[in-house]
Amino acid sequence: MTAPGHGHELAAAHARFARAVLLIYLGTAVVAVVLLVAALATDLAYQQEVARETLLLETEVHAYYLGRHLHLLAGELARLGLRSEVNLLDRNNEPERSLLRLSHEKSAFFNVGVAVVGPDGVPIWSEPQSFLPAGVPLANESWFQAVLRTRSILIAPVQTPHNRESVLYMVSPILRGGQFQGVLLGAIDLALEGAMGTEFHRGAHSMNILATRTGLVIYPPQPPAFSSGADWRSIVQRPSDEPFIHEAVLAVQDDATAPVRPERTVIAVSPVQGTEFLLLSLSNARLFFGPARSRLLTRLALALILALVPFLFLVLLLRRSFRVFEKSELQAVRGERLRMLGEAVNLIAHEVKNSLNGLRVGLDLILQGERMALETRHRQAVSGLRTEMERLSDFTTELLSFSKGVVPRPVSLDLAGFSRKVADLARGRADGLGIPVEIVLPDGPVPVKADPTLIHIVIANLVGNALDALSGHHAGAPRVVVQVERREAGAAVRVTDNGPGVSSGVRARLFEPFVTGKPSGVGIGLALSRTIARAHGGDLVMEDAGSGASFLLTLPLGVG
């Protein structure tokens, strides 16, 4: 592993640390936001429920006071009917006229009019006189028939030809001695009263509606578009005398010229006490629940801002830290390169010096000594010179290969036979050291696609290193084993020795250039061998061995 690679690894570790910190923070923030959203959703549901209960309570109160107001009006008619001036059998209508004139002019109870209707259903007198024109029979009206039948006070809606009126009749029978003499009638227009239009929730409240249980709209004068639909009838015809709240999609029309649109509506319904009427308060659901949803979104936005601000600060801090780290890393890499360059120069100079010393010794043997021993010295000197020159040539070749990079030129190759040939080349040296080299081959060829020159360097390095490790080792019988295997995923060459093994101080950096555990080594062989293996799509690793050292070269299989 080179110093730049080590620097890249440190940078990758720093990036992983930064990502881990950000992911931990984001995970914590997400959990916090999820919990906050759950709490806010619960709070929203609570606020919406409170809003519904408040609307229903206000509708109940409004219905109560409306019913009380209507019964006060009906009670006022009943009180007038009990006065002595009201006697329709005395043939004198002047007292009744005076009483009606006084009640209508001096009182704001009946804003449409009051009238006296005889037992035959014909108006005797009305105030104002245009309210019920004299002579128009009313005996067939449903309200008159109901009072004639029940002899009790009645509050009834009346359909008028005008679409701007919401008229209610208060009908009180006139009884004398149990005999039905006619009715006192008072009429109010709810549209003129103005109380029905009160907004409970300004901005969200749509309208108040007064309707009968059959679905007839009394107020407002112009029935809304949805009052003829099945949804409306299902609401008002619910068999319940208790107030309730309901949500439905109703067809809403802002005015007569506007298109009808569906609108989610919150509807609070309360019976009007003592009548067959229902008071309904309608509110646009979007506007009605809008404040609660706005509060939720505001709180959520604040929470996200509070979560993002530290996150952005953390990102900026990590970026700044990364820049400082990168600067320090470049300086460290530069220093590591200089250190490795110094080591490399030292090792190269040492290796070249050793070779030059060998050459000088050989020359001295040739130039010195007696003439009779000249031939023997020549042979020894030439042999020594050749050895040193070959060692220097091999070292130079490895150094050039490592510096220029490895570019394989693969051909079809039988790894089993090739490994035997390379190992056999080292037998001369092995025999000189007294170290047996055992070759274990599988049955049949092991085809691979590889560059023979480069693979020769790898196997020769591994066998040479094993012989070097055993050359000074005298404990037991030294032995080198070269084993070729064919596997499912590829081919492998394992070189094992029973020497002293690799020291723990060198093991971690064994495949780095110029790192060696041999006294006279340069430290290029294993680094170059791993580079060659990986260039072929394989690898070179050191295996755990009980004693000695074991190196495994793996290569992908070729076409058999």
Largest sheet at a glance? 5 strands, antiparallel
Going across the biggest sheet, name each strand in turn. 2-1-5-4-3
CATH topology term of the domain at 405-555: Heat Shock Protein 90
| Average pLDDT level | 79
For CATH, the homologous superfamily of the domain at 405-555 is named as Histidine kinase-like ATPase, C-terminal domain
* N-to-C order of helices and strands: HHEEHEEEHEEHEEEHHHEHHEEHEEHHEE
Write up what this structure looks like:
The chain is of the alpha+beta class and 560 residues long. Among the domains are: 112 residues, PAS domain (Beta-Lactamase, 2-Layer Sandwich), CATH 3.30.450.20; 94 residues, Beta-Lactamase (2-Layer Sandwich), CATH 3.30.450; 151 residues, Heat Shock Protein 90, CATH 3.30.565. Helix content is 49%, strand content 20%. It has 13 helices and 17 strands. The chain has a 5-stranded antiparallel beta sheet, sandwiched between helices. Strand 8 and strand 9 form a beta hairpin. Helix 1 runs antiparallel to helix 7, helix 7 runs antiparallel to helix 8 and helix 11 packs antiparallel against helix 13. It is rod-shaped. About 1% of the residues have low confidence.
